[in-house]
From TrEMBL:
PROSITE patterns hit by this protein: COLLECTRIN_LIKE
Annotated source species: Thalassarche chlororhynchos (Atlantic yellow-nosed albatross)
Domain Collectrin-like: 24-175
Name this protein carries in UniProt: TMM27 protein
Gene Ontology BP annotations: positive regulation of amino acid transport
UniProt signal peptide: 1-17
GO-annotated cellular components: extracellular exosome; plasma membrane
Entry's transmembrane regions: 146-170
The keyword Phosphoprotein is assigned to this record: yes
Keyword tags: Cell membrane, Glycoprotein, Membrane, Phosphoprotein, Signal, Transmembrane, Transmembrane helix
Cellular compartments annotated: Cell membrane
């Protein structure tokens, strides 16, 4: 019994090492610039922050795929450095030995990017997912439609022209 348990733990450790290679197919590199973003109010990156990151990625995966049962334990962080950069990979919850396709992880991160940034008080420039392009904010819609502004300007020019012609005609008659 002990041998089986030991063998299972060693297989899981080997699988974790295989999944966590920096150049793995579905691995994503993350860089954080906490000091740049927050200055003197910067917080330290520790195990609690890593847990929050894992939770936010699991949240993004669950929101992206409503049938997904991604847990925090399915998000693996690898090669965490002191300057706060690391690789992460998301494993499939049904089979812990395989990873979720990178396209799904990318789509989930892009869909929930603002929530992830808000959780760490960072922006797209200070929380970088290197393989995932930044999402553009939606274009700002003015409260007044553009056509209405153009119509108003043209109408004002026509009214001003008519008033000018009437005033000029009255002045010529008086002469």
């Amino acid at each position: 019994m002990l041998r089986v348990l030991l063998l299972t733990l060693s297989v899981v450790a080997i699988a974790h090492a295989e999944l966590c290679k920096p150049d793995a197919q579905n691995a994503f590199k993350v860089r954080l610039s906490i000091k740049t973003a927050l200055g003197d109010n910067a917080y330290a990156w520790d195990a609690n922050e890593e847990y929050l990151f894992k939770a936010m990625v699991a949240f993004a995966m669950r929101r992206y795929s409503s049938k997904s049962t991604t847990q925090i334990s399915n998000v693996l962080l690898c090669n965490v450095t002191d300057r706060v950069s690391f690789w992460f990979v998301v494993t499939d919850s049904s089979k812990n030995m395989t990873t979720v396709p990178g396209s799904e992880v990318e789509a989930a991160i892009r869909m929930n990017r603002n929530r992830i940034n808000s959780a760490f008080l960072l922006s797209d420039k200070t929380l970088q997912f290197l393989k995932i392009t930044s999402t553009l904010s939606p274009p700002v819609e003015p409260s007044t439609p553009v056509w209405l502004i153009v119509f108003g300007v043209v109408l004002c020019l026509i009214v001003a022209g008519i008033v000018f012609l009437v005033v000029a005609g009255i002045q010529q008659r008086k002469k």
